[in-house]
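Reading a protein record of the kind used here takes only a little practice. The record below shows the convention in full.

——
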Amino acid sequence: MHAWPASEVPALPDKGRDLRIHDTATDGLVTLDPGPVARIYVCGITPYDATHIGHAATYNAFDLVQRVWLDTKRQVHYVQNVTDVDDPLLERAARDDIDWVALAEKETALFREDMTALRMLPPQHYIGAVEAIPGIVPLVERLRDAGAAYELEGDIYFSVESDPNFGKVSRLDAAAMRLLSAERGGDPDRPGKKNPLDPMLWMAAREGEPSWDGGSLGRGRPGWHIECVAIALDHLGMGFDIQGGGSDLAFPHHEMGASHAQVLTGEFPMAKAYVHAGMVALHGEKMSKSKGNLVFVSTLRREGVDPAAIRLALLAHHYRADWEWTDQVLQDALARLDRWRAAVSRPDGPPAETLVAQMREALANDLDAPAALAAVDRWAALQQERGGTDEGAPGVVSRAVDALLGVAL
């Protein structure tokens, strides 16, 4: 599976600061020192509907991570998956009487278009669950043969008790985990499971549903968590720098994935930091496909909204915050974009070195994009009030906003 084209990232003078970011597993800030190549895995979409603002906010957060690392003159090895076979996709395809493969391809293509328009930097490896199956099957077999997995009516389940570090990602108690498991794709009430929290590794073939040869596992398809584990271990290995996604992935997805990987390798932890973006609401409720309260990036684009303004609307909120999309949020972003473009269109302006330093400091401090935006606002206000004599300043500001925030002025 191919990703989307990369926009050019301008190189800035000197280099930025190392990233200090909130780690869900420790509930505190950690300073990451990745070495010459930073490694990040971000969980991708299940392509049964278009990209909504909640998706865009999540991928914007991890785009900022890449940009901070690139500004430190590191390379970035970024991997993202596509869950191109799963129950929600199959259910939507059946509802709309469309082939599930065609639906997945259509929505994945639209996602690529949205990411390109928003100038999100693409992953080096963009891997679908289906194409990962040959690598998933051996991992499930290894877990089963090691006694960390068991069969139940043809399905293969992972035993969470096989991992002594289970629970260290989300830091939730068993009761909270059970509630979230039921809400987020698990089956804690299925009779016969050794532990209600045990997640499925391999689902035996169901009539009328797609299935693949699973070798000694029999025909079937992979569970959700092992998909990402197989892709991450194949392309990044253990101990990569950031495992990222929305806050609703901390449990069960990232918790279970970490346990799978840790039992498979005998190493801990799977990732140095587990980083989670907040949720975006609409009309008082979390934006979600199941509720249908969505604002689609593609719809905004068709209505003529500048993607740079959409990006500024996202950047106006700290990535870990839960916030609500409103018309005013978009209007504020459009006004800000106009002010910034007017400021950099002049031939000279106030010196920009302090601004660049402030932007770098803000983003290195747990991706504080609102503080970075405020710094650019102050420079733009000075430009409007009294201008300046530095002929290179507007160009420096334009390049910095592009390189660090992904906004083309």
